[in-house]
Amino acid sequence: MALGAYTVSNAHFIGVEPGGHVAIYQGLPYDLPGGIHLYRPVQVSSRLLAAQLTEKERRRLFGHDLQSYGNSKHQLTQYEKVVYP
C-alpha cells in the first residue's frame, strides 16, 4: 500500500487546464465516477497555451506519459523557450 502511494505521489504528467494553459499534474491521468480525479495540478504555465503548439507537439506533450516532476518541468521549460525565445 505504501509503495503504491509513493509511486502515485512521484508520478507526473503534462496536460492542459480548462482555460487552455499547459500544466504539470501529480498523480495518474484518470478520472473516477463522481468527478473524482486521481491527479492534481502542481504547476500551471502562465506563458504557454495548448493552442500555441502544433498538433504534433500536443500529441507528444500530452501523451500522459508518467515521469518525474523534474523531467516534466524540463520538458515544459523547453516548450516555453520555443514559443517565447
Describe this structure in words.
The chain is α+β, with helices and mostly antiparallel strands. It has one domain. The protein is built from 3 helices and 3 strands; from the N terminus they run H-E-E-E-H-H. It has a 3-stranded antiparallel beta sheet. The chain is globular, with a radius of gyration of 13 Å. The chain starts with a helix and ends with a helix. The model has no long low-confidence stretch (mean pLDDT 90).
Number of strands: 3
Order of strands, main sheet, comes to: 1-2-3
Question: Ends: how far apart?
Answer: 44 Å
* SSE arrangement, N to C: HEEEHH
Mean pLDDT: 90
How much of the residues is beta strand, in percent? Answer: 35-45%
Helix content: 25-40%
Low-confidence stretches: none
The figure for the number of domains is 1
Number of helices: 3
Short description:
The chain has 85 residues and is of the alpha+beta class. It is built from three helices and three strands; from the N terminus they run αβββαα.
Produce the secondary structure layout:
Blueprint lengths: L1 H9 L1 E5 L4 E12 L3 E14 L5 H7 L7 H15 L2
Antiparallel strand pairs: 1-2, 2-3
Summarize this structure as a short list of keywords or feature phrases.
85 residues, alpha+beta, 3 strands, 36% strand, globular
